[in-house]
Amino acid sequence: MNAYAGPVWSIVLAGRRVEFPATIDTIRAGLSGERASAFDEAVDRTPAKHLLHLLVDFALPERPRRRTRRRSPGCAPGTSPE
Q1: What tens digit of pLDDT does each residue of 3-15 get?
Q2: CA atoms within 13 A on the CB side of 18
């Protein structure tokens, strides 16, 4: 049994099984207004051979962006100014 009405995809991400909706309608239904609009636009302009990747990108929960530390100008990676 899964948490979605209708077909689902199942993949392993970071060692855990993740299920997500497998239709355009159910993916769209889980998106906020702005994200749903972006999804519709992306689906309209994406070549069919790339749709699977697009659907997966929108169906998976958004992950927080990694914060990167700023380096001071002139510092090599892995070093800090002293």
Answers
A1: 767 788 888 888 9
A2: 11
pTM flag (> 0.70): no
**CA–CA distance, 60 with 13 (Å, rounded to integer):** 10
Using alpha carbons, select from 23, 32, 29, 12 the residue that is nearest to residue 51: 23
- The residue with tokens 């990167």 is 68
Question: Both tokens of residue 7?
Answer: 């077909």
Q: Where are the alpha helices (DSSP H) in 23-79?
A: 24-29, 33-45, 51-59
**Sign of torsion over alpha carbons 47, 48, 53, 58:** positive
As a whole number of angstroms, the distance between CA 26 and CA 5 comes to 8
Ranges of beta strands (E only) in the chain are 8-13, 16-21
DSSP for residue 68: -
Place of tokens 């609009």: 37
Q: Where are the domains of the chain?
A: 8-59
